[in-house]
Structure formats: C-alpha cells, structure tokens
Amino acid sequence: MATRAVSIRTRLTALVVLATLAPVGTALGFVAERDLRDIRNDMVTSSALIGYVIAEYSASAMAFEDRADAGRTLNGLSRDENVIAAALYDNDGRRFVSYEQRASSVPRLPPSIARARGSLTTVEAEHVTVIQPVISQGTRYGTLLVLVSTAHLRSRIHGYLLSMGLLGLGAIAAAVALALMLERMVSRPLLALADVARRIADTEDYSVRAASVGHGEIGLLADAFNRMLGEIDGRQKQAQQAIQVRDDFLSIASHELKTPLTSLRLQAQGLLMLPPTSVSEPDGKRIKHTLEVIDRQVARLDKLIANLLDVSRIAAGRLLLDPTETNLSSLVREVMRQFEAQLARGNCKLDASIEPSVIGLWDAPRLDQVVTNLISNAIKYGGGKPIELSVASTAAGARLVVRDQGIGISSDDQHRIFGRFERAASLSYGGLGLGLFISAQIARAHGGTISVESTPKVGSRFTVELPRAPILKGAIE
Ligand code: ADP
User: Residues with Cβ < 8 Å from 227, sequence gap 6 or more?
Assistant: First the structure.
C-alpha cells in the first residue's frame, strides 16, 4: 500500500523548526562549550593564585620554622569559603601546619606528601588541588597543599546550563510560533484550496469556491482558482443546457415525425391489401412491389425514430418497463418470422436452436427490440454468411446468443459499441449507433447483461443474459 503523502503543513512546520533550531542550537553549543571552558579555567587560575600568594606569605614562617605565624597565614584562608583545607609540608614531606574549614565534608589532609618539583593544579570532581613549592630567595622550605571546593564551580555551571536550557526552550518556542505563523499564512490557505479541489473531485460540484485569503500570492492563486471554477461551472451549465435542448429536440422531433409516418405506413399497408381491380396485371405487380418498398422504408424510418425516442426517454429516465410473464422462445420465433423475407432477399441462412419454452417475467416489447436489433445487426454486418441463434434457460434465467461470421469488431471498439451513438463500422453500413445502446439499457433494466466476443473478419457473438425474475428498477437509467 502506498504511504500517505506528508501534508504541506507538516513539511512546512518541520522545515521552519529545523531551519530555526539548527543554527541556534549550533551557536548555543559553541558558546556553551567556550563558556564552560572559561569558567573552569577561571577556577583553576584563581586556585593557583591562592596557592601562589599563600606560599609567598608562608615562606618566612617556614624559614624560621614558626608554626604560629604559618598557622595564622593559613587561617587567613577562612575568608574564602571555597578553600576547604590547606597544609604546609616541610622539605621531608611531613605536615608542618594545616588549616581545615569547619565543614563535615572536608576531605582529610594527608599527614605527608611526596616532594613536588614545581607548582601543580589538578581538578577533581569535588575539589581543585593546588600544590605550590614554598620558596624564598631561591631556597625551598617546603610545599603548600590547598584544596579548593568545586561547589561554587558546579553551581556556576548548573546556573549556566539552566540559562542555556531556557534559551534553547525560548528558541524552540520561537520556532514553533514562527511555524504556526507560517502555517496560518501559507499552509492553511493552501490546504483550504486543496480541500476545495478534493471536494470538487469527489462531488463534481463546480459551484463551490475557495475562501478569499487576501491579496498575497496565495490570495491570487485562490482568486485564479475561483475564476477557473466559475468558468468550468458556467461551461458545465451551458453543456448541460445544450444536452437538455438536444434531448428535448430529439423527443419533440421524434414525436412529430412519428405521427405522419404511422399514418403513411397504415396507408401503404391498406393499399397493399387492396385486390388489383382497375389496373392491368403487370402494372398491379409493379404497384405492389413499389408499395412493398415504401412499406419497408417507412418501417425503417419508423424504427430509427423509435430509437431516437427511446434515447430521449432514457436520458430523461422515462423508459419504463412493464414486465409480464413472457415466453422468450415464442418471442424469438415471432421476430425470426418477421425477418424471413429480408433473409430470403439476402439469401442468408438463420439456424436457430431454441428450447421449447423459456419463460420469465420480462417486458416483451422491449425484449422484442433487443432480439430484433441483434438479428438485424447480424444480417447487416454478417456478409450474407449463415447466422446462428440460440435460446436456452440457465440456472438464473435465460440466455440468448446471436452469432454471425461477418466483419467482426476490433477489441478496441468492443467496449464502446454499447454507448450512445457509438459506431465501429464504416458509414456505408448506415445506422445511428443506437441499437446496442438501447439493447444494453433494456438488458440492464431487467437486471441482465449483454456482451460481445468478436474477431475482425471472423465474426461476432452477442450474448444476452436475463434473470428469470429480475429485480426491477422501474425506469431505465
Ligand atoms: P448501428 O448498427 O445502427 O450502427 P448499433 O448500436 O446496433 O448501431 O451497433 C453499434 C456498432 O456496433 C455498429 O455501428 C457496428 O460497428 C458494431 N456492430 C454491431 N453489431 C455488429 C455485428 N454483428 N458485427 C459487427 N459489428 C457490429
């Protein structure tokens, strides 16, 4: 399954947050790294300075081995709350005098230390250790050890990290606010446009419009979109009106044409039935022949007009079925009888295999139309070769098959010949391209189907399947 496309809103928000946070985060990272290094270095420098100054002041006391004076000097460290302990060691590494802050967590001073060559400051988790040689006028008298608490350093770092964190949060809040603003300005109107487009695609209702969103580029886009919709809407209404006018015209024209035509046909048939009286035999034969031709042509015209009338009825949803118990076998035999003369004239054979009685609840005149259409097409496109017809009952109802060995239909055309006014044969064959359309509508209205299998230049086979008792839809749509 294809993954759902990420919405423009999500992409824009992610982009803005990233674009804002990436440089701000990098800058904060650099600054924090540098500041933390500076804070640590400050601590190391100031601790080393304390060590240096105390060593300077203690040098004479150590030279004279004056413990009281050295003790006073060390006690001076009590003014700096960060110094937790300090001790002076003689040149043998033995503790000479010490100072300890009155606090429980003071680490124990070592009773002796190894003699260090030079000054050394090391930072540990809890304290900074400063080792400073005590030297006066080039003579070394001992070593000073000072322990300076890192609590102050840690609280400074904590405070610093806290303010950095707050700054970071502020940057995130600003990025989100910016994203929301952009979302309001850009993605929301675009999403509204996309929503309108989706609604139109779903409902094909071109009367909807996108909301106006000011005069910016998106506003222009929405206005252009709305203008386009207006145009499509207008054209669609025009097209619908034109179709309506055409359908109305078809309906009126077919009615108007049908009335004189019916009367003309009745007249011709009446004349045909008259016994030849006042005319000589050869003239009588000629008149009879002419009248037969007139009758056939009028019948053809009548069928064409009936088809046009059906199309307008179908378009208006007014082609109603009137199903009654119908024997399809008798119906097909009757239609075949009507084609006898035409088949004989064309020297065309029609082989039929019809089960004695295939009965169902169908609209007989409408099925007559379907059978007539299939047989007349088989004659028209069958190239005079034998036509086969069969009627059989099936588990669901009935099956009618008409097969010819004529021009056939290409596979590209097969799906469209059931559409309105669709034709696949050359103009020389004549016809309006309505017979199969109406037949398919009638089959569908009965809950059945009509299908074709065909090979060009080999022939076609049309199959109609009908359910015995169809779920009637009432009107053909
Ligand atoms: P018409 O025959 O009036 O053109 P139809 O709706 O009856 O209209 O048929 C539509 C098209 O289907 C025809 O124009 C023709 O090209 C094709 N067609 C129908 N029946 C056959 C057939 N038996 N053999 C070959 N082509 C056919």
Answer: none
Long-range pairs for 426-435 at CB < 8 Å and ≥24 separation? 429/380, 429/381, 430/380, 431/380, 432/304, 432/307, 432/308, 434/307, 434/308, 434/310, 434/311, 435/307, 435/373, 435/376, 435/377
The alpha carbon of 433 and the centre of ligand 1 are apart by a number of angstroms equal to 7
What sign for the dihedral angle of Cα 353, 356, 359, 364? positive
Largest Cα–Cα distance in the chain?
A: 175
C-alpha to C-alpha distances, 71 to 99, 100, 343, 368, nearest whole angstrom: 7, 11, 141, 131
pTM summary value: 0.54
Query: For residue 70, how many C-alpha atoms fall within 13 Å in the half-sphere facing its CB?
Result: 26
**Angstrom distance (rounded) from CA 340 to CA 8:** 71
> Helices 364-381 & 435-445, crossing angle to 10 degrees?
140
Report the pLDDT value the prediction gives residue 389, as an integer from 0 to 100: 98
Instruction: Return phi, psi of residue 123, to 5°.
Output: -105, 125
- Give the pLDDT of residue 2: 42
pLDDT score of 475 = 46
| CB contact at 8 A, 467 and 393 | no
In this structure, what DSSP letter does residue 5 have? P
Q: How far is the CA of 204 from the centre of ligand 1 (A)?
A: 33
**Mean pLDDT of the 269-292 span:** 74
Could you give the domains of the chain?
8-101+113-161 (3.30.450.20), 320-476 (3.30.565.10)
The binding-site residues of ligand 1, defined as CB within 6 angstroms of any ligand atom, are 373, 377-378, 381, 404, 406-409, 417, 422-425, 431-437, 460
